[in-house]
Amino acid sequence: MIFTAELPIRFAHCDPAGIVFYPRYFEMMNGVVEDWCAQGLACSFHEMHIARGIGLPTVHLETDFIKPTELGESLLAELVVTKLGKSSVELQICFRGPQQDMRLKAKLVLVMMDLKLRKSIAISDELSTAMQKYCKI
Amino acid sequence: MIFTAELPIRFAHCDPAGIVFYPRYFEMMNGVVEDWCAQGLACSFHEMHIARGIGLPTVHLETDFIKPTELGESLLAELVVTKLGKSSVELQICFRGPQQDMRLKAKLVLVMMDLKLRKSIAISDELSTAMQKYCKI
Amino acid sequence: MIFTAELPIRFAHCDPAGIVFYPRYFEMMNGVVEDWCAQGLACSFHEMHIARGIGLPTVHLETDFIKPTELGESLLAELVVTKLGKSSVELQICFRGPQQDMRLKAKLVLVMMDLKLRKSIAISDELSTAMQKYCKI
Amino acid sequence: MIFTAELPIRFAHCDPAGIVFYPRYFEMMNGVVEDWCAQGLACSFHEMHIARGIGLPTVHLETDFIKPTELGESLLAELVVTKLGKSSVELQICFRGPQQDMRLKAKLVLVMMDLKLRKSIAISDELSTAMQKYCKI
Question: Where do the H-state alpha helices sit in chain D?
Fold first, then answer.
């Protein structure tokens, strides 16, 4: 399974060159992970942070910016799990343009954390099982 | 007619107190105006900026922040035109919570500008007619 | 006394028209209030939020955007107290360009809050005395 | 030579967990590159974009987020050139905490672009010479 999300490119995302300012891509990317947790894993950031006292911070990130994106375009984000560990998960996220052309390709490593102790903890069986559905074989 | 838009509150919008950081409200508000132009007036920011060389900057803003908004909530934005001049338009934008409770109430004055000349210009008849449909009597 | 701060205009602040995107002005404005608290009132946001469990959210805001600001310019912010109440403080903040020309003029009302109870509380005598030094007669 | 910049951590940078929201690190990182161009290379982004019609977009990025950063801390950014090509330059940027402890380590590849043609171009001799001073042997 691939988790997908639509990303309309807004005025707020664009720089004086009229294209997406790259730090804004990461706000969008975080939004994709947020939607995946809420819709794909049935455990929203709000639920994690407020009710469970856990978080899923990004500890490593690699990104290729392949083609610039202009104001008014709409991108499609695709998220898959590429590795699933005891307390970490590796994701691949691609942003594609209207012609399916790749705009950005990223690898993220997220770690399950206890927010109070600031320590990594095991991903719960429930979440791990939900994540497995998005594993790319 | 009232122009409406849904605003999911994201992790990126929230501050260390767990509520929306107020400058993020204005990014959302600009997004509402952007959607209104594209969907309500049939003239996107991209069309304005790139094809026509015009813009609709905000020159005056008044906002009451009535109740804080938390991570995970979803707001409803409502936009109406409260005054329509030769080159300016006054909008009222409200953000409401899930129980229709008012979170934020804003008055914005936007001015139609020629981007190259950096001068105000008359709103075209076509745009003015489209804006009139959203006038609150 | 007037509290002042320098604001270099960065690429991240500017929109496809090459000028400051107005929600970014409010990020800067919040930074000015933050610096005023830390340097002018000797009580940083960190101290307020983490150690004391209080906050100073903005409940009302009025802004005139007088002249656009371009990438590469440097603004000067000026903050004065225009009204000081039991639990609220009204500020006037101006952003000026290199020729002292006014770019933005804002009135903000901030309220001292207990973050846990989400209720307004009295401004402490210590903070109130510190704020008085910035009162515009 | 190492290019350095101070980065005060603001309320605007922090998330509901009270630590820097990672997309904000990239806004800061872009600011460091911006300052390096203006102060270290004597060619500001404004000069590049407006006067010369060139830009220096990031095409590849790798980041390790080593330790979280809290509201109220101040980081030190260190920038060095790790590779200098005909039209591209590879940078290493580190963010350190008050005890010199590493918070973030990034590798960026930037490419000199003609903004109108949207094509890579050779880095000018003048800029290349200036960049060489920051090369890590």
Answer: 22-35, 45-46, 125-132
